[in-house]
TrEMBL record:
This is Methylated-DNA/protein-cysteine methyltransferase. NCBIfam families: ogt (TIGR00589). The keyword Methyltransferase applies. It comes from Thauera aminoaromatica. GO terms for molecular function: methylated-DNA-[protein]-cysteine S-methyltransferase activity. Residues 212-291 form the Methylated-DNA-[protein]-cysteine S-methyltransferase DNA binding domain.
Length: 292
């Protein structure tokens, strides 16, 4: 199942998550979820298999606080050291390798900025890239015009180049299929003056554009492997700022590389998912998708 095909199911997944979240005291059975979606149980099983290779029972388990507490990592004494260019860790065989480099928020340079809209397993997303790497990934919560206004405000000195075809290829690389026995679609081919660099073959290179403190927080997030979680307080403690969680939270809120800089892997200590820039349903969908 390709990324495009999985993307067709996201609205159904989001409605299922909203239905379950509206019943916090008693998790509804899979049959009740399917009925609420206007599907029979077999159709609901097929949707989940194509979207993430996950069963209805596993999907429901991944939405609960008990699952989140299971996946909370014990607080290590320190985060593993990583420098720019080092690949991010992964305990998922099909997770995309990530490398990164910092960029000051006001570098004074005019750059060619490729951008385009692409389907993902979590709905449409606006991706942007320079010749050095991917610098923006924002999920559509409003209309496309709002996404473009935000991008242009963040990169006001850039020369924009629209290229939906390359955005599609990047999405295929970033979101490899979770469906069983399905080959990952190749993400190849050149595309115009703002083609993203790719120092890691088969992976994705990121541009972390922010202050040194923001980059420090974002790079720490990238050390949390897929399928593992960390609490906000744990992250602040590991960054040596146990008394300043608000500063850490501000840096997290400034992240514009959704999913790639994985702020969705941060939850509250009690297992509650907490807030997310692109919606709580989308955050829970990401956690369930990474649980396969």
């Amino acid at each position: 199942m390709s990324t495009d095909s999985a993307a067709l199911h996201y609205d159904t997944i989001a409605r299922a998550i909203a239905f379950v979240r509206a019943r916090p005291r008693h998790t509804p059975p899979s049959g009740a979820v399917a009925e609420a979606l206007g599907l029979d149980l077999g159709q609901w099983q097929q949707v989940l298999a194509e979207w993430a290779g996950i069963t209805p029972e596993r999907f429901l388990h991944c939405l609960g606080r008990a699952y989140a507490r299971e996946r909370l990592s014990p607080t290590p004494e320190r985060l593993p050291e990583r420098d720019a260019g080092d690949p991010a860790p992964s305990d998922l065989a099909r997770a995309v390798p990530l490398t990164w480099e910092p960029m000051p928020p006001a570098s004074g340079r005019t750059v060619a900025l490729g951008h385009g809209l692409a389907a993902t397993p979590f709905g449409d997303a606006l991706l942007a890239w320079t010749t050095r790497g991917v610098c923006h990934l924002a999920f559509r919560c409003r209309d496309e015009a709002a996404l473009l206004v935000e991008l242009r405000s963040l990169w006001s000195a850039a020369a924009p180049v629209r290229d939906d075809a390359h955005a599609h290829r990047l999405a295929q690389r970033i979101f490899p299929s979770r469906a069983p026995s399905t080959p990952v679609a190749a993400a190849t081919g050149a595309s115009g003056p703002a083609e993203a660099a790719n120092p890691a073959p088969g992976g994705v290179h990121l541009i972390l554009r922010g202050t040194p403190f923001q980059v420090r927080v974002w790079s720490a997030l990238m050390r949390i492997p897929p399928g593992r979680l960390m609490s906000y307080r744990q992250l602040a403690t590991l960054l040596g700022m146990p008394a300043a969680p608000r500063s850490v939270g501000s840096a997290i809120a400034a992240n514009t590389l959704g999913y790639l800089v994985p702020c969705h892997r941060l939850i509250r200590a009690d297992g509650d998912a907490g807030e997310f820039r692109w919606g709580r349903e989308r955050k829970l969908a990401m956690l369930a998708w990474e649980a396969t």
